[in-house]
Amino acid sequence: MNQITLFGVVQGVGMRPFVYTLAQKLELVGFTRNTQAALEIILPAHKTESFLNALKKELPPLALVEKIIISPYDKALHFNDFRILESKNHPLNLLSQIPKDLGVCKDCLHEIRDKNSPYFHYAFNSCAKCGARYSLLNALPYDRENSALKPFKLCEFCASTYQDPTNKRFHIQGISCKKCGIVLNYKRFKNDDALLECAKDIQKGKIIALKG
C-alpha cells in the first residue's frame, strides 16, 4: 500500500467525496481523510500512478494541489473497500490552506427559487461548489465540528444527502436546510418574513446592519 499526501487547497472544496468517487470507479481498497495540513489517501501501490493521472485530469475546480508526497504505508487495513475516515491531527502540526467563501452556484440558486425544493427561500443553501468556507471555520482539519455549524445537527433529510455518494452534498461539511440550519432574525421576524421586512425597510431608505 502507498500513502499519497496532497498539500494545497484540498479541504473544503469537495476533495474527500471526489477521491472516494474516483476510488470507487477504479475499484480501489483503502481510505482518505483530512489532517490539519493535508489530505491523505491510502491505496494499493500498483494503482498509485493510474489514480494520480485520473485525479489530475478530474480535479474539482476549486481544488489546488501544490505538492504531492508518496510514501509506503505498511499498516494493515481491516476492511476490503474504500472509505472516508475521520480526520486526524498532523504530527508536525502544520495547517492546510483554507478556501475562501464562495458565491451561490446556479444549481443552489435554482433550488432556492424552486417552491418544491427543501431549500426554497433558504438563504444559506450550499454544496461542494459554493457557500461559506473561510468565515465558518474555527480550526483545522476542515470538519463540521470545527466550524460555526457545529451546534446545528443535520436533520434526517440533510443527513441522507450527506451520506449519499451520488448526491452533490455527499460529505460536504457546510450543508443545512430550513429544518436544521441557520435562522434569519430581523426584529421579531424570522427567515422569509425577516427578509421581506428587511427589504421593506431598505426601500424606505433605512440602513440595515448585518450580524453573524
Automatic annotation (TrEMBL):
Residues 1-86 form the Acylphosphatase-like domain. Pfam families: Acylphosphatase (PF00708), zf-HYPF (PF07503). Keywords: Hydrolase, Transferase. Its EC number is 3.6.1.7. SUPFAM superfamilies: Acylphosphatase/BLUF domain-like. The active site is at residues 16, 34. One of its GO terms (biological process) is protein maturation. It catalyses: an acyl phosphate + H2O = a carboxylate + phosphate + H(+). Coiled coil: none annotated. PROSITE patterns: ACYLPHOSPHATASE_1, ACYLPHOSPHATASE_3. It is an enzyme of class 3 (hydrolase). One of its GO terms (molecular function) is zinc ion binding. This is acylphosphatase. It comes from Helicobacter pylori (Campylobacter pylori).
